[in-house]
Amino acid sequence: MWMLDPYERDATVAKEALEQNETNFEALVEIFIGRKSSHILLIKQAYQKRFRRQLDQDIINLEPLHPYQKILLALSTSHKAHHADISQHIAKCDARRLYETGEGSRGAIEEVVVLEILSKRSIPQMKLTLSSYKHIYGYDYRKSIKRGNYGEFEKALKMVVKCICDPPHYYAKALHTSIKGVKSHKATLVQVLVSRIKIDMDEIQRVFKKKYGKDFRDVINESIPCGDNRDFLVSLTTRTSSTT
Asked: What integer best gives the mean pLDDT of the chain?
């Protein structure tokens, strides 16, 4: 994973996520949210070259159908359609639409409206929209989602919104779960460390220590057997986005 070019690594992660018995939608969402549009294009090209398949089509073909598929395809479309500049006016308008077709309507969230916004806006624009939502209504959009009917779409949307709004907290929790959860997920641990090392690994570790009371490298030493790539994983935690 470390030796691959970033876009080839993401293409491999996407393929592995799709091939699991239970699709790893979180890994796919992290790719589409955490990468620039130019990088997404390279990922799709690498995916096609390595696996002779189209990434978007493989997502469409997943069975049984899952709400994450709709969200992922909307995010994929946004990388093709959005403009580089962000707009405060658009953010406020989108925030009001999210409210009026969700909590403001006293009903379930209208999927079609959410998917339309996700498909037309860049991730920075979506982040501004969600910030505007909190400014206008006094609480996070995630709280509005919680007040809904707890359907599968709402659950998926809540995870996506958290990944957009607060990546350090999202990934700190993902790292903790990958080691201390009911079932450890070493693949998730490696994936997060390698993919975020040049972005915000230092901030993720600060959040991790504040949230769980321990340095992340100490948790690795405590939880992973000696020799099981432990030293390499610890070395990754010492690299920060400013020095890599």
From this structure: 88
Go through the domains of the chain in sequence order and give each one's CATH number.
6-165 (1.10.220.10), 168-237 (1.10.220.10)
Please say if the pLDDT value at position 48 is more than 60: yes
Residues belonging to the binding site for Ca(2+) are: 179
State the average pLDDT over residues 205-218: 94
> Distance (Å, rounded) from C-alpha 244 to C-alpha 117?
35
pTM (global) more than 0.90: no
Q: What is the mean pLDDT of residues 191-212?
A: 92
Known binding positions: 179
Q: Under a CB-based contact definition with an 8 Å cutoff, are residues 205 and 171 in contact? A: no
The residue among 146 and 241 whose pLDDT is bigger is 146
Find the mean pLDDT for residues 209-228: 88
